[in-house]
Amino acid sequence: MRKRLLSFKYAFRGIREVFGSEANMKIHIAITLLVLICGIVFSISLIEWMFCLLCIGLVVGAEMINTAIENVVDLASPEHHLLAGKAKDIAAGAVLICAIISVVIGLLIFVPKAW
Q: How confident is the model at residue 78 (pLDDT cuts 50, 70, 90)?
């Protein structure tokens, strides 16, 4: 039981670390707050809330995985290496794809309501 509780402690420490140190995460949080405010203002439906929350979780989770990959790559290959750069670029690209899809979903939800 203690081991399981410690795993939560470590997970929350990781969340705190990424939110405190990553500039991109601050951007994601600002956009998240904007989406939440718009969701309340436009009284979006339960299904729309589910899509918004899924997108928020997807982008934040992808950003956290990207940060973890960048840290591991930097540890394993402190000097510039083609494959290290490639791994970091691919991880960043994954975040970008999640963000783009989230923007499209946000537009599909909010543009008709604002119109």
A: confident
| Helix, strand counts (H, E) of the chain | 4, 0
The closest of 53, 54, 63, 78 to 17, measured between CA atoms, is 63
Confidence at 57, pLDDT banded by 50, 70, 90: very high
CA 33 to chain centre: 13
Which of 60, 65, 49 is closest to 105 using CA atoms?
Answer: 49
Task: Check residue 5 and give its pLDDT.
Answer: 85
- Which residues are known catalytic residues? 63
* Amino acid (one-letter) located at 108: L
Element (H, E) at 58: helix 46-76
